[in-house]
Structures are given as structure tokens and as C-alpha cells.
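Pasting two entries for a bug report.
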Amino acid sequence: MRLLTLGVLVAFVWQFHRLSKDLDWAAFSRALRRPGQWRFLLMAIALMPVNWWLEARKWHGLLRVFLPWSFGRTWRATLAGVSLSAATPNRIGEIGGRLLVAEREEWPGVITSSVLGSACQWVAFLLLAWPGLMWTADGLLQEALSFSVAWLWPVGPLILLAGWWVGMPLLLRGVKWLGNRFKLDQEALVTGLIQVKIPVMLWAAAHACLRFSVYCMQLYLLLWFFGLELPLWRGLAGIAAIYLVQAGIPLPPGLNLVTRTELGVLLWNTGESAEPAAAIAVLAAFTSLFAVNVLLPALPGYFLFVRNYRKSKHQ
């Protein structure tokens, strides 16, 4: 536990160092000095606890099928997951962080409900981000090549329907792999997964959609803060499209930032938003969002690691 605590602290230091290098502090300073721009930054920060509250509510609805956890404990475990996932690709370390604040006998329920929560996030991607991707890609291709991708619009709903019918075997395989990885009771994991009913999944999927909408709005506000004043629906569609593309490519956080920035410049570096203004705004907005949504809430999660280590040391 001592090595893990040290590793999390090192990850924080590295992420803050990378943040200070990637963020254009001159652009940040200029944005603060523009009249009224600060309100966009404050609104983005104010949405951060809403973002993680929705994640905790989603997970709590799934978790209570397996464990009688209070929402307060679920909230603390969610923050612990954020802390460990800050330095892992696509939040892979999130489950590990949650396990560190759970008892060994509670691990099957934590793992199974977390895997189900990740599946619900893909429901949000296919319901909200897929239309955004199709709209954005169709506009770019029509302008550049006179080529339409309108015929691909039904693919997202079809994938969602297929996942509804064949997703259980895939989830079972994923849960079994995690069970082998952590040496857990396979029967308990599988039995718990089967006990989750459709209304519970629909409830969790609705929270996942709300959370994804909040996340996209945060980035939209930060883009305005840094001077990239996009139309509301065009901007939100492009943001959703970027996250859908990036979600399918598991990269370390630093490369994720590069990928998102390049996609953002491709989408929004047109018309009045000319290079390098668009590139600076996109890089600054994505970097700031990572600081607001990951590093900031990860700090209390880190202290949970330290507290749990001290408790286990005295037992």
C-alpha cells in the first residue's frame, strides 16, 4: 500500500508538471482579462461536482444490487477511482481505485457494477455521440469531397440493439477476466451480473447520458472562455464526436490530449477561427478540462488512499 500511495503521488506531480507545460498560460491570462469571460470558466468548474455526482449516482444504482453501500461511501469510492485513473489510459485504473476503499469480500460487487457502469457509458456514446459524429463528418466530407455519410446514421442504433442482445456474453467474459486478475470467486461474479435487471440498467444509462451531456457542456464553455465562440449545437456535436473517436483508442492521458486537440483543430480551425488561434483555444480548453474534471477531484481521492493506508496499518 505504501508503494501504491507513493505511485499515486508521483502520478499527481507528473500530471501537474505536464499541465503546466501544455497549457498556454499567456492565452489563459488573456482570456481572464477579456470582459465577462471569467463566467464561462466558473460555470465549467461549477459543473465538475455535478459531473461526478451523476457518475456516483449511476454507480450507486448498480452497486446496491450487490452491496448495501450508502451513497456517501459510493461517493468516496468514486473519488478514489478518479485518483488512480488520473494516470491511466481511458480511466482503466478507476476500478482499482474503488477496490482500495472496499473490503476484500466486497470486491465482486464493486467489479461487476463498475463493468456495468462502463457499458452504460457506451449507451451514452451511441445515443448522443454517434449522431454528433455523423453530423460533423457529413458536413466535413460534403464540403471537401461532396460525399455524404448519411447512410451510416442507423449504424449507431443498430450497434446499440446488437449490444443489448449479445452484450451479456461479452460482459461475462470481461467480468471473468477481472475475476481471474484479482483472484475472486467466479461464481459470485457471474451470479451477481445476471441479477441486474433491465430497469436498473435503463436507470444507469439515463444517468450516463446526463453525465456525458454535462461533460460536453463543460468543454463547450471552456472553448468560449479561450475565445473559440462556436454555435451551440455545432460545437456540442463536434465535442461529442471527438470523445466517441477517442474512446475507442486506449491511449495514455498525454496522447489522449494530443489526439483530442488535433481533432478539434481539424473541426474548428475554419473561417474566422484561423491558425494559430483555434489551436491555442482547443489545446487550452482540453488541458483545462482535464485539470478541472480529473486532477481537481483526484486530490481528495489521494487523501482517501493515505487514510486507508493508515487505518490498515493500525489494524
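Entry 2 (this is the one that rendered wrong in the viewer):
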Amino acid sequence: MADELDLDLVEISAKADPPVCKILDYQKYLYQQRKRAKEMKANAAKVVIKEIRFGPNTDEHDFQFKLKHAQGFLQEGSKVKATIFFRGRSIMFAEQGQKQLLRFAVELEEYGRAESMPVLEGKRMHMMIAPNKKK
């Protein structure tokens, strides 16, 4: 029957009794599968990470300015990576930097949640803040 219709006979389930086969155009079937996979990939959520950097002795106005930017990033659905960089001997103020990052996370609580506590790596301390789920 498949030869008469110029189509392919495709075995669906070999373990069934009797084996299950289907008559279809195999090239068209492969094309549709690739097209469906491409659509799924295009619709997948892409994670965007925005970084906000400041120092351990950042002034209140500058802190509020960065906070406002972070709120915008979280509202558009991006993750925010808050980084405090220590230059020279400012590494002595690591606790001050940690307090600043924790304050940053607390002030952004209604827009996003902290994914991790502040982590010190070399001369940088950072933490990730993920946006809240949209309802």
C-alpha cells in the first residue's frame, strides 16, 4: 500500500504483537519535527543577568540610584548580580560591603528574592537576586 501511494512504511512499535507500522512521508515527518523543535527553542525563556557594581563606601544617593536601576531590571524579568568591588586596602571593609549587599537585597524584596548570600571571591563580593514570579 505504501508503494502505491509513493509514501514510506515506518515501524512505530516493534515490540507490540503484531508490530505497529504507519504509512507516511518520512521526510515531511522529519521536517515537521525539526520545525517543532526550533519553535520550542525560540519560545524557551532566556535568562538575562544585569550587573550592578558599587564600592563598600558608596554614598546614600548613589546607592538609591543603583537600587532604582535594579528595580527596573527585576520588573522587566532580568536577574540582577549586585557586586561590590574592593580596591587596595578597602578589603578591610568586607563586613561593611556585606551589610550593604544585604541591605540592597532587603530593599528589593518586593521586586525579587535573593538567590544566594553575599560571597567574597578575591576582591569582589557578589550576590544574585532573581525576579519574583509574575502572576
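Dev reply: Rendering is fixed now. As a check, the viewer should reflect this: The longest strand covers residues 124-131.
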